[in-house]
Design goal:
mainly alpha, transmembrane, cell membrane, single chain, globular, 21 helices, 74% helix, antiport, transmembrane helix, membrane
Length: 429
């Protein structure tokens, strides 16, 4: 069978090498984040070049470069750069701490765990990072549990659930950016579609947390905060919901946060530039992974691997409902293997788009399904960054938090319901 033919299973070898190397390294070291994902990605790239092929090596390299430098990949990289810079600058001016203290100031004591979830939802929605949200709130959750008698595994798992809310919805979340770009839809449209699916999950989580914690109180006191430092988050959310281009929204957020920062005598332009640089540097691994995986996926597609996967996934599909379920299964299984929801979406996004187009699935829905089911898995795997971060900041085992991981479970349920009953009903654009 020619490596350039359609429905070629051998073309998937780079992808298998990528996942297999990552899993083997994680199992041997006992830590799936001990080795950078760039290592298996580079190995998979090398394999994609040496597979038997009728083309010359120079032509293969050119094909890889076309995928790595695809306009969608480059736009995604630009967004990642600005998102990292905004998150870093906003955090440096005290926006995260002010948001936490704002919520603790105005929430009733007997609804504190509900408040923790809502705070985590807002912070992650504004910051676009679930791990950053967990780092900010997990220590507070542990302190609250000691004051109230509530199980610390429940309070910390609640923080993780709220963090996944923003990870799934925020316009500066790398998962959301990846889902929107791979499906070629608009950020505001994906947000609205996704929001209607996960809102019942958030409400169910709040109701369950209220029931489990009713009557508890806390002696945790809020400290003072500066209202003005919350404005960059509010501005970014407002701009996104108004449909402003995401690059402009992020640039405006950096500018606003920077102006607020330099208005303080202790915050200089040098500090601002350093925080922008730190934020961009913090996204460097993800940016490189995105570029490399873009090249790998291009090679797999060129050699017939994408056609093969589509054939396997859809050969028993007889309906739009079945096609949506195949998209959900594709991204969920990839996330289980990679323990990274952004990489799972980037890896499976192109195939998901092809399935969506073949079965007339609205791209707003396919983008939402990619994000929902990747975040479901990411919020439940004990070797994922979110539960590992929660474990690091709380001293708890990731496994003991799983029974209290209500929100990731509820969004999975709502995702299944959205497939089964074709919800929400979307008007043709």
């Amino acid at each position: 069978m020619s490596m350039n033919s359609k429905n070629n299973p051998f073309a998937l070898l780079p992808f298998i090498i990528f996942l297999g190397t990552f899993l083997l390294a994680g199992i041997l070291t006992g830590d799936f984040y001990q080795i950078s994902m760039l290592i298996p990605a580079l190995l998979a790239s090398f394999v994609s070049f040496i597979l038997p092929n009728k083309d010359r090596l120079s032509e293969r390299v050119e094909q890889f470069a076309k995928g790595a430098g695809h306009p969608d990949i480059m736009i995604m990289v630009m967004i990642f750069i600005l998102a990292g810079a905004f998150s870093s600058v906003a955090s440096s001016i005290g926006a995260v701490n002010s948001t936490v203290q704002f919520a603790l100031t105005y929430l009733p004591e007997n609804m504190i765990i509900v408040g923790i979830f809502i705070i985590a939802c807002f912070i992650s929605l504004a910051m676009g990072t679930s791990v950053g949200t967990i780092a900010a709130l997990a220590p507070i959750a542990v302190g609250i549990s000691s004051e109230t008698g509530l199980p610390s595994e429940m309070t910390v798992a609640t923080v993780v659930g709220g963090a996944m809310f923003g990870d799934n919805l925020s316009i500066i979340s790398d998962t959301t950016i990846a889902a929107v770009r791979t499906q070629k839809t608009e950020m505001k449209d994906k947000f609205k579609t996704n929001f209607f699916i996960v809102l019942p999950a958030a409400i169910a989580t709040i109701a369950l947390l209220f029931f489990l914690s009713y009557g508890s109180s806390t002696g945790v006191s809020a400290t003072s905060f500066e209202w003005i430092t919350i404005l960059p988050y509010i501005g970014v959310l407002a701009g996104a919901l108004a449909g402003v281009n995401v690059l402009i929204v992020l640039f405006g957020g950096i500018l606003l946060a920077g102006l607020i920062g330099v208005s303080s005598p202790s915050y200089t332009f040098i500090d601002l530039f350093n925080h922008i640089s730190d934020g961009i540097t913090g996204m460097s691994e993800l940016i490189l992974l995105t570029i490399i995986i873009g090249g790998i996926v291009s090679m797999i597609q060129y050699n017939g691997g994408i056609d093969f996967i589509r054939h396997v996934l859809t050969k028993r599909v007889r309906s739009k409902r079945g096609a949506e379920a195949s998209i959900a299964g594709l991204v969920a299984s990839t996330n289980l293997a990679t323990a990274n929801n952004t990489i799972a979406i980037i890896t499976s996004g192109q195939l998901a788009k092809q399935i969506a187009d073949d079965y007339n699935i609205d791209r707003r829905k396919s983008a939402s399904l990619l994000d929902i089911f990747s975040c479901t898995v990411q919020g439940l795997i004990p070797y994922g960054a979110q539960l590992l971060a929660a474990s690091q900041f709380s001293g708890l085992s990731p496994v003991v938090m799983l029974p209290y991981s209500f929100y990731p479970i509820f969004i999975a349920v709502m995702g299944i319901i959205s497939i089964q009953f074709d919800f929400p009903k979307l008007k043709k654009k």
